[in-house]
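Components:
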Amino acid sequence: MFDARAIRKQFPILERQVHGVPLVYLDNAATSQKPQAVLDALTDYYTRYNANVHRGIHTLAEEATAAYEAARARIARFIGAAGPEGVLLTRNTTEAINLVAYAWGRRHLREGDEVLLTEMEHHSNLVPWHLLAAEQGVRLRHIGITDEGYLDLSNLDELLTERTRLVSVTHMSNVLGTINPVRLLAERAHQVGAMVLVDGAQSVPHLPVDVADLGCDLLAFSSHKMLGPTGVGVLYGRPEVLETFSPFLGGGEMIQEVYLDHSTYADLPHRFEAGTPNIADAIAFGAAIDFLSGLGMEQVREHEVALTSYALRALSQVDGLTIYGPQDPQHRGGVIAFNLEGVHPHDLGTLLDQMGVAVRAGHHCAQPLMRRLGVPATARASFYLYTTEEEIDVLVTSLEKVKEFFVNAGRRAGRAV
Ligand code: PMP
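Structure:
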């Protein structure tokens, strides 16, 4: 049985107190905490077999190379990729998306070509395309959002045409929690010959994700949101698709032969990994994947659906609280953005922190979405496999206290709030 309370014991940081009270960590959409197994994998690498990969013939170099490549193979299995050659290790999701814009977009896109995005994208799936549009005259189009927080697919036929070369869409919104119908979008995109890139930064950590089931060509995600270290991300690509990319960064490791005036390039995946990679963090990411696989992603998702329904019910009892995004927990992840009437989200975040509750407040790197919602910012609570119902209770009682301190005190003082 999935037991979040037992799982928590494997995360040393969750024992922490802040401001003299136990930490309630509800900022998992920003980054997750790390289990002891991941911390141990880092220490083990640096204390026993720290060496550069793919170069040395000595024992330590061979061990480091084997561990680094084993992490890549684990990642491939975790997302149902046919083999490790389609798994490119990057710094994060942002770099993975930029890699597509630079290595594919600059080579293949021309004036008049279109890239289809959505109004709920994170800036990391908007700005790389802005740069490309400014340079190459590519037209950007956007799928809108319904008032319930779903993608509005009513005009998809008009948005998706033979001019569309790429559909790049988030699998799960980092603000609304919405889980998008990526498979359907991929089918429709492929019918017009467009390529499909999925931003899996929020979905891969929380849902079972299989690239063959999704039908996508490319998938980007980050280790640090799924129990692994910062500094490692993934661009998965179907090898036939990656073969059409130009090299990204040039230098050591990504070449086959170098002459004074030209080079030939290594096979996949190394062609896209110039220089010494982030060896330690990639190996520890492999340990994170083992941890998640050990629990089972179906179980992780089930736990989060239960938590999200519990949280939506409890939060809807708080007077003056506006919750954004779909109401149905089956169609959303454990990310809940909200605003409390009369309290700026930054003040709300600061007051909650005083009570030990860590949430995020701001635009969540989704300014176009904030405009669509008609707010400058929101607070956001986000859950993970170690989150408990008791922690959601603490969030709710803390919100009630904030209301008491802030809103009701303001009313008593005769201030308009
Ligand atoms: N896309 C989404 C949906 C995200 O939530 C995030 C992280 N907030 C990113 C992309 C960017 O991830 P990273 O900062 O790890 O590159």
